[in-house]
Design a protein that fits this description.
Layout lengths: L14 H17 L3 H25 L16 H10 L2 H6 L5 H13 L3 H11 L2
């Protein structure tokens, strides 16, 4: 807690914990290099890009210095994107935030998606 730890926390494991952690690391490499997983990851790159492109249209409606337009002044598509990621009340409560702040919110939303949700959403948005 004092910030004085040297190395990584896993380096301080002993005995069975250290052995188990090593086994997990090996299995992780096998699982996440499996052919189906690699194909899914490659496919997800385009899906992420497509969803982010849609949210870029929302971010373009927010002036650079901040002060996003009222929810009802957004385009119909922009309102739908807000409702998908947050809700109108959250948007209204944070209208004075900067475009950069909203960009972080978008990235938080997209990065928090599960693979299944990403696939479903990208399919529905035509990404």
């Amino acid at each position: 807690m004092a910030g004085t730890l040297e190395g990584e926390l896993k380096d301080y494991l002993e005995g069975e914990q250290r052995t188990a952690f090593g086994e997990i690391r090996e299995l992780y490499a096998v699982l996440f290099s499996h052919h189906r997983k690699v194909i899914a990851e490659i496919g997800s790159y385009g899906q992420f890009a497509g969803i982010l492109d849609h949210y870029l249209t929302l971010l373009e409606q927010i002036p650079e210095p901040g002060g996003a337009p009222r929810f009802d002044a957004l385009s119909a598509f922009g309102r739908q994107l807000v409702q998908l990621a947050w809700d109108a009340d959250y948007y209204a409560a944070n209208r004075s935030r900067s475009r950069a702040w909203w960009a972080h919110q978008v990235l938080d939303f997209v990065s928090g998606m599960t693979d299944d949700y990403l696939n479903t959403l990208a399919h529905r948005l035509g990404c």
